[in-house]
């Protein structure tokens, strides 16, 4: 490789192309034609007219975009179904309470302190996973509890915290509509994800 690209300009040029290729490879569409990608890049750099008309390009992008949206919708539906099935089975287990909203919880430790209100500020430790056990966030792992407003977090937490006396540790099973909904949150939490949290209510701080 180094014999082919000897000068800094050649190496940097290769690097630019490599970065563009990696970006496309990270989010490809089914049927991408590598040679056409390369041809389009070269034509643009050389100032040539597009081989494909603007109207045809727009139509093609529309078709591909629609296909990708359908794939994402299918994946989201699968995630939602998996979460619903998990919660349905989980509800049958001893010690699981299901509220009117669909939130499920089990009491690991029952505290004896006061219960926060929606406008309280609380300090908690927590550990969050997907239903397959993948950890997406944990204050325990960071070794640092966090404090926040009860009404400033996901709906499942807002509901559960108002039921928990200080000193309690509960495991929450939060359906997607009480968590991050149809959009998810970042790369770790996909759309329609049911989430599991171990939540320890340490104190009411305000």
UniProtKB/TrEMBL annotation:
One of its GO terms (molecular function) is peptidyl-prolyl cis-trans isomerase activity. Its EC number is 5.2.1.8. It is an enzyme of class 5 (isomerase). Belongs to the FKBP-type PPIase family. This is Peptidyl-prolyl cis-trans isomerase. It holds the Pfam family FKBP_C. Transmembrane segments: none annotated. Keywords: Isomerase, Rotamase, Signal. One of its GO terms (biological process) is protein folding. It catalyses: [protein]-peptidylproline (omega=180) = [protein]-peptidylproline (omega=0). It comes from Cellvibrio polysaccharolyticus. Residues 119-205 form the PPIase FKBP-type domain.
